[in-house]
Every structure is written in structure tokens, then in C-alpha cells.
Specification:
With about 150 residues, the chain is mainly beta. The chain has four helices and nine strands, in the order αααβαββββββββ. Helices cover about 15% and strands about 45% of the residues.
């Protein structure tokens, strides 16, 4: 799978979605208000998620389908993660990052800057590196597997 296949346009994402009819409470959210309530982590490392340093760095915005919408603010790099039960949408609201995807045993890098996003396919191990003042929003299915070391593809 190529990097081009991993990046999804908003139109294509809409065409592929299959909305389910279910009654729900409509709640408006503010990106700026949500991000103002999170703590900035200036030196995130892969170990940060395991030692409690990321506490308060991410906000649970809402539940969504089979997971949740999160927002966070940090610089640095993350551990490896994957989501077996669905694709994850990652949007760089502000700042920049490189999403490293493990595809067929090879690392593929997708650089994101303000306003860009990538859809990480279900089951794909990925991590974030060289994030600079990244304000990020993700639509993340559950559960999430985490690994400090590069997992086998």
C-alpha cells in the first residue's frame, strides 16, 4: 500500500461512509475551547504514555461510532499504536508532525502540517515523530494497542 493510498480526501471519506440512523443528542463543540483545557507537553517521548506524562495532554471530546474523538497538544514523539477495529483519522489542527506507518514491514512517513490529515488503516501500526507544537484531533476506534518497541508488521 502506498502513501497516496493512505491519505484520503474529504470527498472520498464521505462517499465511503455509511451513516447509521440512530437518535442522538446534537452537541456543538469548540476546537479552541477544547484545546484551551488541555496541558501542553513540550517533550513527549515514546515512554510518556506509559509513565503518566500524557495525563491532561489529551481531551476526550466525544464518543463516536466505535471509539472517540480526542484532541491534544504536544511536541516530540509517541509510542507505536494500532487500532484493530477501524481506521483512525488524524488531523493536524495546528503545528506539524510526521506519522510513521508500518506497512508490510517498511516504515512509510506522511508529513502533516496545519489543516492536513491522514486516515490510518485499521490494524496498521503507527507513531508520531518530530511533532512541533502539534494541536491534533483524532477520531480513534477502540481498543488501542501500544508498543514502545517497533512491532513486527
Amino acid at each position: 500500500m502506498s502513501i497516496a493510498e493512505l491519505i484520503c480526501s474529504p470527498r472520498k471519506a464521505c462517499e465511503q461512509s455509511k451513516p447509521q440512523h440512530r437518535p442522538a443528542m446534537i452537541t456543538k463543540k469548540s476546537i479552541s475551547e477544547t484545546l484551551s483545557g488541555v496541558k501542553y507537553l513540550p517533550n513527549r517521548t515514546p515512554a510518556s504514555g506509559f509513565n503518566g506524562e500524557t495525563s491532561g495532554v489529551f481531551a476526550l471530546v466525544s464518543t463516536c461510532r466505535d471509539g472517540a474523538i480526542y484532541m491534544g497538544h504536544y511536541s516530540g514523539s509517541s509510542e507505536w499504536e494500532r487500532h484493530q477495529n477501524g481506521d483512525e483519522l488524524v488531523l493536524a489542527i495546528e503545528g506539524s508532525t510526521t506519522v510513521v506507518l508500518l506497512v508490510q514491514g517498511a516504515e512509510q512517513r506522511v508529513h502533516l502540517v496545519t489543516g492536513e490529515f491522514v486516515v490510518v488503516p485499521a490494524g496498521t501500526w503507527h507513531r508520531f515523530e518530530e511533532s512541533i507544537s502539534l494541536k491534533v484531533m483524532s477520531v480513534t476506534p477502540t481498543p488501542t494497542d501500544h508498543s514502545l518497541d517497533r512491532p513486527d508488521a
